[in-house]
Amino acid sequence: MLRVHFIFKKTSLKTAFFKQEFCPAGQNIRKGRPIKMPTVSYNPFENAQAQFDKVAEQLNLDAGTRALLRQPMKEYHFTIPVKMDDGTTQVFKAFRIKHNDARGPAKGGIRFHPHETADTVRALSTWMTWKCAVVDIPLGGGKGGIICDPHNLSAGEQERLCRGFIRTLFSQVGPNIDVPAPDVMTNGQHMLWMLDEYEVLAGGRYPGVITGKPVGMGGSLGRTEATGYGVIYTLEGLLKARGIAPGNTSASIQGFGNVAEYAARMYSELGGKVICVSCWNQADKKAYTFKKAAGCDIDELVGIKDSFGSIDVEKARALGYEILDGDAWLSQDVDILIPAALENQITPAVFPNISKKVKIICEAANGPTTPDCDQLIKDAGIDLIPDFLCNAGGVTCSYFEQVQCNMNYFWSREEVLDKLRFAMTKAFDDVYALSADKGLYMRDAAYQIAIKRVADAVKLRGWVS
Ligand code: NAD
Fold first, then answer.
1. What is the pLDDT of residues 416-440, one digit of tens each?
2. Which atom of ligand 1 is the closest one to the Cα of 223?
3. Which residues pair with 254 in a beta bridge?
């Protein structure tokens, strides 16, 4: 049942295709320009490899290091048979992919998704390697996924699926090997079932084998807010470097889930004005932007959103919010754009809609900007804080959770957040200094730091000469 790929074969890459459509009449004019709405399919692993190749060239890496780092070291593709509540057996396909563990045990989430692919997991495991390296935590990159839709599974079926995942991978996860965490459509309960299965098999208590556990069951205080706060710690660093007071700035945010909410909260605490947030509406099957020119009240919006990060349209209207199209967040006259929802949102096709006032893009989501848009952003003189630095607060706090679990001694929320602020600020300052020193786009500077750290590690270990 377990198929282990030690040598990666690039067999399933699909060529990216590109087509453009235009919005229906009446929706397509903003600032006097027609808005092209792109439907672009980007292969995430091809993106990850293209980004790596570019920086490998800049760093002049040798051929052996390039060959090693542009693909995952190990891939597990396996099936999990699950006894369903109706007595039948359903077989689920799963992946766990370790991109690189030269700097420490692999770290990365497990996603439940009906459209999960090996290439998505490959890309995400690669980005985890760079993310851990750029914030200088002693971990490598991994990611997992199970092709399933948890909406259609009972709690019991989900529990058996989680236990089956760990049973199959038992020898390949562990506090010193590979440490999973929650990701898309997985949560603390899934992590506890996985932890319990691992501990039954191991015959002991190993809380550091998995992170994202509920507080009181090995989870860390501060984890909920860590990613969103981390985004703003990096933004604070940039504003300071540019001599801009946060209180004189305004922002527009895509998304109002976990990351966006806590980023909005901390940014507002610093005195910044959130002009609008956008989110998905499941009933209408479309996104909306909620705008208040005088500034959104984040507590008020949190009070009318559901657990999926969707704001109630009628309640928002009653509170005086303008309800705009889902893509309106991108074209606001603000200083800062914070995409905190989805990948591939800022593309060359929509780039002209970004206001000339925008000075900063904080990539709170994973992969919100397509690689072909980087040059446009750079040429426009917009500072971009790249995703794998900007949203690294989550994995940094997961690392703290693992450390606390391994010690069996837990820190206060203040201690966790102090350590988080220190780590994120230091990582941002290092990236900013290199970018200023060498005139580099910040994404390239961050990649150079991260890739060099991993390249040094594989060399020091003697994996490449
Ligand atoms: P979430 O599920 O809590 O929230 C997602 C938000 O995006 C929701 O408000 C949803 O309504 C909104 N959304 C979905 N489709 C949209 C659309 N078309 N237009 C506008 N809004 C839309 O997710 P999250 O945990 O906040 O994660 C957001 C992003 O940050 C993802 O890219 C995720 O991979 C990344 N990220 C999250 C963490 C973390 O710790 N949660 C860590 C690192 C990176």
1. 999 999 999 999 999 999 999 999 9
2. 40
3. 278, 339
Q: Are 419 and 137 in contact (CB under 8 A)?
A: no
Q: Any catalytic annotation for residue 143? A: yes
218-237 burial, b at 16+ Cβ within 10 Å, e below that, comes to bbbbbbbbbbbbbbbbbbbb
Q: Cα of 285 to ligand 1 centre, how many Å?
A: 16
- Distant-in-sequence, close-in-space partners of 260: CB < 8 Å, separation ≥ 6: 228, 253, 254, 277, 309, 338, 340, 341, 364
Query: Which protein residue's CA is at the shortest distance from atom 35 of ligand 1?
Result: 365
Terminal Cα distance for the chain, rounded: 36
- Rounded-to-integer distance, Cα 306 and Cα 281, Å: 10
- Nearest alpha carbon to residue 328 among 297, 374, 290: 290
Residue where the block lists tokens 């700035």: 249
User: Quick one: which atom of ligand 1 is closest to the CA of 342?
Assistant: 32
| 148 CA to centre of own chain | 20
> How much is the pLDDT for 371?
87
CA gap 30, 26 in Å, rounded = 10
pLDDT in tens, 23-62: 222 232 223 333 333 445 678 899 899 889 999 999 999 9
